[in-house]
UniProtKB/TrEMBL annotation:
Binding of L-aspartate, residues: T119, N123, D124
Gene name of the encoded protein: argG
Protein name: Argininosuccinate synthase
Positions that bind L-citrulline: Y87, N123, R127, S175, E260, Y272
Gene3D superfamilies per UniProt: Argininosuccinate synthetase, chain A, domain 2, HUPs, Single helix bin
GO biological process: argininosuccinate metabolic process; L-arginine biosynthetic process; urea cycle
Pathway: Amino-acid biosynthesis; L-arginine biosynthesis; L-arginine from L-ornithine and carbamoyl phosphate: step 2/3
Oligomer and partners: Homotetramer.
UniProt-listed Pfam families: Arginosuc_syn_C (PF20979), Arginosuc_synth (PF00764)
Length: 399
């Protein structure tokens, strides 16, 4: 019996070519595994059949949409995770889930090798392979696009020479990765940093001026950091993302033009669309401002960037990431309440907050009658708070 290679299959050019190439070059049978993460586009049954038509001995499609939303998108919301304070980890959080299912498929189908279609320039090769090495260090890893220096032109030529049934041309301008959490677009004319994105770059969002006269106001309800209702209607995490993708996308919310620091050491220009993600993170941050104690909130904001860096760098399964997850879960105990916001002209504006767990005390905050804050205590507090700086300044000034 031939060895089996379990391939992360997207249905696109590189992984379709990889099925045939792996068979010809290694003699191994290929099991194609496609994961439905809410990316839309082609019907997954069509994707499954294409893998078989390209020569896979088995083709598996896994509906992981709710799993992705609950176990990968939700922690990203609760951590307010934005790599470099901008990127909501659209691709980064999908890779560990794909790794998990590929390892499971390898065990179920007798695979000795797992394969992916990543290049040597990107972050995804790291995310896949570090994940494989963590969850299944006994499995071998094959990366034909990277290890054999494939180009798009070579892949198309191989497909034509070997009658591989794919519909792709050399004119396709972009490299696109998408799921329910967002959409990432790169390459083509976007590689020139001075070139502005054209309207054909976007798919999840409308031009922000299209609905300029019709802003959308809504209320998002959270229970312990988990979105549970929109405008009073109960929703699952997946349903919340889908609805907000539609509503925020119609207002042009979630368009990001980013030059980011890749793990391999180069800078890359990426266009992201993440309407639902950006709304949920904004709303969740605002609710934390109401419900988290000051020192806890300050420390959490520091660790959020570290969590984002770990996930971006492919360390989802690392001990530090696991420990930080435990911390984040603890911080969410009181993050319950409602956030009212307006989506308009590409912007999210929060204009209302309410929570039974709120730390906001009106009688302490007000400057009007009924103020319960003891202002006489402030003078001594200020003197003591700055005392060490005052002593140092007197020394430095020779006083």
């Amino acid at each position: 019996m031939a060895e089996r290679v379990v391939l992360a299959y997207s249905g696109g050019l590189d992984t379709s070519v990889a099925i045939s190439w792996i068979g010809k070059e290694t003699g191994a049978d290929v099991v194609a595994v496609a994961i439905d993460l809410g990316q839309g586009g082609e019907d997954m049954d069509v994707v499954r059949q294409r893998a078989l038509d390209c020569g896979a001995v088995e083709s598996v499609v896994i509906d992981a949409r709710d799993e992705f939303a609950d176990e990968y998108c939700l922690p990203t919301v609760q951590t307010n995770a934005l790599y470099m304070d901008r990127y909501p980890l659209v691709s980064a959080i999908s890779r560990p889930l794909i790794v998990k299912h590929l390892v499971t498929a390898a065990r179920a189908h007798g695979g000795t090798t797992v394969a992916h279609g990543c290049t040597g320039k990107g972050n995804d090769q790291v995310r896949f392979e570090v994940g494989f090495n963590t969850l299944a260090p006994d499995l071998k890893v094959l990366a034909p696009v990277r290890d054999y220096a494939w180009t798009r032109e070579k892949a198309i030529a191989f497909a034509e020479d070997n009658q591989i049934p794919i519909n792709v041309t050399k004119k396709s301008p972009f490299s696109i990765d998408q799921n329910v959490w967002g959409r990432a677009v790169e390459t083509g004319f976007l590689e020139d940093l001075w070139n502005a994105p054209t309207k054909d770059v976007y798919d999840y969002t409308q031009d922000p001026t299209v609905n300029f006269t019709a802003p959308d106001e809504l209320i998002i309800s959270f229970d312990k950091g988990r979105p549970v209702a929109i405008d009073g209607k109960p929703v699952s995490v997946l349903e919340a993302i889908v609805e907000l993708n539609a509503r925020a996308g119609a207002q042009g919310v979630g368009r990001l033009d980013v030059v980011e620091d890749r793990l391999v050491g180069i800078k890359s220009r990426e266009i992201y669309e993440a309407p639902g993600a950006m709304v949920l993170i904004n709303a969740h941050q605002e609710l934390e401002h109401v419900t988290l104690e000051r020192e806890l909130g300050r420390y959490k904001r520091q660790m959020e960037q570290r969590w984002s860096e770990l996930v971006y760098d492919g360390l989802w399964f690392s001990p530090l990431k696991e420990a930080l997850d435990t911390f984040v879960t603890k911080t969410q105990e009181h993050v319950t309440g409602d956030i009212r916001l307006v989506l308009h002209a590409g912007v999210v504006n929060v204009n209302g907050r309410r929570s039974g767990e709120s730390l906001y005390d009106f009688n302490l905050a007000t400057y009007d009658e009924g103020d319960t804050f003891d202002q006489s205590a402030a003078k001594g507090f200020v003197q003591l708070h700055g005392l060490s700086s005052k002593i140092a300044a007197k020394r430095d000034l020779g006083l």
